[in-house]
Design a protein that fits this description.
With 89 residues, this protein is mainly β. It has one helix and eight strands, in the order E-E-E-H-E-E-E-E-E.
């Protein structure tokens, strides 16, 4: 599991890592905080593959169609941006 600070005074969590089938991003915060947040999955060249606007506190990202490899998951919140390196199997 990757854990990085920066979510509404709490910790953003991304699991499982490595991932198969789906990835779960957890962002602590109230509804107003989450309404100003988004999640972006990109490949290492920066190509955006998934974007979720106004995520839930626990958001499931389906990985169907995503090839095995290393990707970057950004969680953008009012408190800042956390970046997680994710391996997809």
């Amino acid at each position: 599991m990757n854990v990085t600070s920066g979510g509404g005074g709490g910790m953003n969590r991304v699991a499982p890592n490595p991932a198969r089938g789906e990835l779960i991003a957890e962002i602590p915060g109230d509804a107003d905080y989450l309404a100003q947040s988004h999640i972006i999955l990109t490949d290492l060249q920066g190509k955006e593959l998934i974007r979720v606007r106004q995520p839930e506190s626990s958001t499931i990202l389906p990985l169907a169609g995503i090839r095995p490899g290393i990707y970057l998951l950004q969680i953008v919140t009012p408190a800042g941006t956390s970046q997680h390196k994710v391996q997809v199997e």
